[in-house]
Amino acid sequence: MSRTTRPPRTALPALPRLALARTGLEIRQFFRERDAVFFIFAYPIVMLAIFALVFGQDGNRVGPEPGVPFAQYFLPGMIATGVLLSSFQNLALSVSEERDTRALKRLRSTPMPPSAYFLGKTGSVLVTSVVQMGLLVAAGAWLFGVELPEDPDRWLTFGWVFVLGTAAGAVCGVAFSSIPRSARSAAAVVTPVVIVLQFISGVFFPFYDLPGWMQQLASLFPLKWMAQGMRSVFLPDAAVVLEPAGSWEHDRIALVLLAYLVVGLVVGVRTFRWLRRDDG
């Protein structure tokens, strides 16, 4: 009597390969949602155009003489907003939808490790954010005459603020996705948070013009620090006097963004739900 031989178990690919494959899938899924792609990519450019055209009339400038052109001052805030939209808002909404449609439940039952899913989300956010930043910076330079920095150190600052801000926004978006009770309510919960942060963080108005209590409130959230870090890249050195602290505070920017990255990871791991509330 012959023994039945079991087929050999096929080992899963290494985590980096799984994460890369998941990143590619997430990117394809993102670009299929054309309305979301248009809003996320076009919104910062449209807002920059509005502020540059409305407030920059007759050569008006920001700050004391000689001042900074309006488009140049508002570009850093729009870059920070773009990071927030691509990372925090995009993931908070998309993960909520995947949970509601039980896509997460199906993924959880596959051999794919959860870390590959989260790395794929983060990778897709980084890729789409790079595309968005390229479009926004190009629009600022070509359409509104924003002078781009020539100092490599400024681009190095741009790089670490962008990467830390995107990573922190991504993990916080995944963690925040557990708050809405359903995908239908997710937009009503997430969008007001994003809008309020934009108003208090020096995105729509010069930060130094905001009331002191509002500046203190904004300092509790990462968008204010991302915008400040980006201003240190695109504004002249003399513009540092427009900052309430009289300094770009690069060390504090890095500390706050790292803190949000770590806290977002811890909270996300502890509160993330693969199932809908009515799934038990």
From TrEMBL:
It comes from the Bacteria. GO terms for cellular component: ATP-binding cassette (ABC) transporter complex. GO terms for biological process: response to antibiotic. The keyword Ubl conjugation does not apply. The chain crosses the membrane at residues 36-55, 75-95, 116-143, 155-176, 188-208, 253-272. It is a multi-pass membrane protein. One of its GO terms (molecular function) is ABC-type transporter activity. PROSITE patterns: ABC_TM2 (PS51012). Keywords: Antibiotic resistance, Membrane, Transmembrane, Transmembrane helix. Residues 35-275 form the ABC transmembrane type-2 domain. It is found in: Membrane. This is ABC transporter. It comes from Cellulomonas bogoriensis 69B4 = DSM 16987. The lineage of its organism: Bacteria, Bacillati, Actinomycetota, Actinomycetes, Micrococcales.
